[in-house]
Amino acid sequence: MQHTALPSFGGASCWRLAQPGIIALEACGARSDAGPSVDGLFATAAAVYGKRVIGVVLTGGSHDGTRGSTVIEAAGGVCVVQDPDEAVDADMPLSVIRGDHPDYCLRLEQMAPLLVRLAAGELPPRS
Q1: Is 53 helix (H, G, I), strand (E, B) or coil?
Q2: In a domain, 7, yes or no
């Protein structure tokens, strides 16, 4: 199993899963208030990988990640959000919490151990 972390670029560009194993950066109109949106990547990853997808939403402005997290959850995947109390900008985590009821809401130091367990196929008790 391969795991990939993606950088974020400004401008009118969006990440999406073009096909299994191929992630594309393309021009798009789907922008959040703060810039390019991750919703397209979350939605296409859920369509291709279903319950194997883990979406992680960290600090950030606007509502970005909320729609995509809902799609991941509907496909049987897992949504993890940063505890808004420690986020530099709590808008994104709070938006997901309000709109999606994520599986886990954790402080940053708790995320790596959880993600390792989820990637290994373990499903720890939900927070």
Answers
A1: coil
A2: no
Q: For the chain, 127 residues long, give each residue's pLDDT as a single digit of tens.
A: 454 544 454 555 566 766 777 766 666 654 444 456 788 889 888 988 899 999 999 998 888 899 999 999 999 999 999 999 999 999 999 999 999 789 999 999 999 999 999 999 888 767 6
Tell me, yes or no, whether 125 lies in a domain: no
Residue 47: give the domain boundaries. 13-119
Asked if residue 3 belongs to a domain, the reply is no
* Rg of the chain, C-alpha, whole Å: 14
3-state percent helix, strand, coil for the chain, nearest multiple of 5: 35, 25, 40
Query: Which CATH number does the domain housing residue 80 bear?
Result: 3.40.50.180
What pTM was estimated for this model as a whole? 0.79
Whether 8 is in a domain gets the answer no
Long-range contacts of 107-113 (CB under 8 A, 24+ apart): 107/82, 107/83, 108/58, 108/82, 111/56, 111/80, 111/82
